[in-house]
Amino acid sequence: MNKLKKYMVMNKALALISLLFVFASCEDVVNLDLPTGETKLVIDAEIIWKKGTDGKDQTIKISKTAPYYNGSTPKVSGAQVRVENSNGDVFPFNETEAGVYKCTNFVPVIDADYKLFIDAEGQSFTAVEKLTSVTPINKVEQKIVPDFDGTDIIELTFYYNDPADQTNYYVTDYQAPFLIYPEYEITNDEFYNGNEISTRYSHEDKMLPGNTVTITHRGVSKNFYNYWKLILEASNSNPFSVPPGNIRGNIVNTTDASNFAMGYFRLCEADQVPYVVQ
After folding, report:
1. Longest C-alpha distance within the chain, in Å?
2. Which end of the chain is flanked by fewer CB atoms within 10 Å, N or C?
3. Alpha helices, H only, the chain
4. How many angstroms separate the CA atoms of 185 and 8, rounded?
5. How far is CA 248 from CA 19, 161, 263, in A?
6. Could you tell me if 266 and 134 are in contact, meaning their C-beta atoms sit under 8 angstroms apart?
7. pLDDT above 80: residue 236
8. How far is it, in rounded angstroms, from Cα 129 to Cα 227?
9. Which residues pair with 143 in a beta bridge?
10. DSSP of 35-81, one letter per residue?
């Protein structure tokens, strides 16, 4: 009986392996009939004050969620957009193209509170956030390191000094010709408070000499750090993780609280360094 059972188990295993090869060799593209959720407003509202600039030029984008297989996302035109600071100063954002709203006279002040106001498609939205500072990048270093498969790859490391008198949170993005979209990384100073922090970046064998990698290093609030952490965890597509569902930001619909918008209103000071790979 034991031999028979082993024989049956082996046959089942071989059949399963054969099936996997059949599916792996299939080249037909299959579009799944995915369910379509409720359409939501998407508000991309980052006020970013790059060191060395006056921070006057800022952009807010408004669009809508779309089905997975759509080639583009619907832009939202005709919205009324403004930001106010705690002194009552008003900074209007005017539509320059479909769904894109620009301000040319913004005044950034570290640790000042700002409030976002948006009226779009009969709904009103608000959000409040503080402009968070960041310490500058001290230097960027490059070295060759072995990858997991033993091949040599280029690794960049940038350094910055963390302030000792406060708790800090950081969001960094990397942009380069070999990246379709920016790659993001989050850091906090829980174990490095008051010390120099180093952050490493590499990209398999695609980062080559002559490439320019632009590093944008932001100081962010704790709430935005936690929000972005959920976004990154969801985008990793871990099949064993629990789906987070709709990740809520800080933008509130004052007309209908249940009809919330996607996105997060954040204000960040940033240091941006373009590095040419050697």
Report:
1. 85
2. N
3. 2-25, 222-235
4. 49
5. 41, 32, 7
6. no
7. no
8. 13
9. 155
10. PP----EEEEEEEEEETTS----EEEEEEE---TT-SS--B--S-EE
Q: Which amino acid is at 212?
A: T
163, 132 contact by CB (below 8 A): no
CA angle 270, 250, 100 (to 5 degrees): 65
List % helix, strand, coil for the chain (3-state, nearest 5): 15, 45, 45
Size of the chain in residues: 278
Three-state SS at 148: coil
In the numeric block, the tokens 């080639």 are attached to 71
How confident is the model over 67-74, as a mean pLDDT? 71
| Other residues' Cβ atoms within 10 Å of the Cβ of residue 266 | 27
Q: Give per-residue pLDDT as tens, 113-151.
A: 999 999 999 999 999 999 999 999 999 999 999 887 778
d(CA 41, CA 125): 10
Q: How many CB atoms lie within 10 A of CB 143?
A: 10
Q: Note if the pTM is more than 0.85.
A: no
Rounded CA-CA distance 201/232 in Å is 16
- Residue pair 155/202 in contact (Cβ under 8 Å)? The answer is yes
CA distance 206 to 142: 15
In the prediction, which pLDDT does 37 show? 59
Q: What does the block give as tokens for 130? A: 């503080």
Q: Are 258 and 123 in contact (CB under 8 A)?
A: no
Please give the structure tokens belonging to residue 28: 């037909």
Strand, helix or coil at 223? helix
At 70 the pLDDT is 63
